[in-house]
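Two quick folds needed for the group meeting slides. Do the first one here.
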Amino acid sequence: MFSPDGYRALTERAALVRRTDRGVLAVTGADRLSWLQGLLTNDVMALPTGGVCDAAYLTPQGRMITDLRVFNLQDRVLLDVPASLAEALQQRLDGLLFSEDAQIANQSTDMSVVEVHGPQASAVVDGLGMTRDDAFDLPGFTAFVPSAVIEMFVQNLTGRGAEATTLETLDIVRIEAGRPAFLVDMDEHTIPLEAGLEQRAISFTKGCYVGQEVIVRVTHRGGGRVAKKLVGLRLSKGQLPAGGEVLSSAGRDVGRLTSSAWSPAVESGIALGYVHRDFTAPGTMLNVSTSPAQLTGEVTPLPFIRRKSTGS
């Protein structure tokens, strides 16, 4: 459920969110980084100890199996993945281990993901060893906490001034930041370039990885042109459309909407969706086929709100 107080904490102060929607895979062994380097789209070998990056895991055809965040800790690498996919991903990745000194375990039951976001997040988490990761265009921090002590950890954060809020509230900030979510705005049919992931999750200077040939071919030979692209839409007044609604122009279907929310900051309904590349220019007006009334959406540059200058 959306929390107005939680939204204000996220955008004006500091809010903590228990990421029950996320699973955790732990990769150990001396070859853990080099093994992941050959599988994931980003340059994980370049991560310093304590560093984090976004990445994607692709099929050989360049379609997404999942997106993920990669945390390089002292003695292991933690992969932050969609919770519903954690077990299947662990089994799939484990099947790709041969002679490498690496092991992968699903620690989703034993470990919880806790995040703190907001302009005052740095002060709240000072000294706790949380990893900086500004995923939503706000100062943000992540901790992987043993489930046995999660309540104590959360109480410590709230005692420091973090206000607990909901996943639904965080999702509004996610959409405002223009950050697509896997299983919502991306799926097994998505090419990362369609979702704009090249800006944060793909390295074009690292060595080979699964699906690289497709990404390179589209980027260098095709000039980065894909059939459809993720865009932001500022909606006209009316009910919020659901994901999957058709986007059209002059009676022609040109795309699909994937996420929508009412944004207190924009004071309007906003949405993410994929549209044909000929309709991605800011200011383009599209019809959103919804019942009982038809809405319109104006293509808007992402993110909807630029907040990165807030906080330290």
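Then this one, please, same format:
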Amino acid sequence: MSTWTAHTTVTAAPTAVLDLLTDPNAIERWAPVPFELEELSGRRLDAGATARVSGRLARFGASFDVEVEAAHEERFALFAHGPVDLDVEYELFADSGGTDVWVSVGVKSGGGLSGRLLAQATEALLRAGALDRALGRIAEEIEETQSERRTRNVSFC
């Protein structure tokens, strides 16, 4: 299994980061790979939730069964099983300036030719900085949300 990591700091509390990570409507805006949510066992990606997602990478369509292992202010972790197995973990560390966000993604071929090709394509995407770009979009969205809240609070005062 190959593992890829990235890190960023956002100027918001861990709860705001977790809220974005577990919001099924927001994930499509920042995820490193475009996908479609087909099923979700609840309203959010909370601990114990399951989902089915599908998408395309390198001209291959793929579906994944997702299990959320943890979803709390310090850790969000899930496992996606499909032609490629993905072990994803976000660690959230509060500090005086906001939250340090560390992400790691383990990639393992699920077997067969398509699994090997998808694993190689996934690793190429990650090698090209997909995790850094995803974290950048997460930070931007959180910053925009925080800014909008501050603007609304000022206009009501």
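Slide caption for protein two: The chain has a mean pLDDT of 91.
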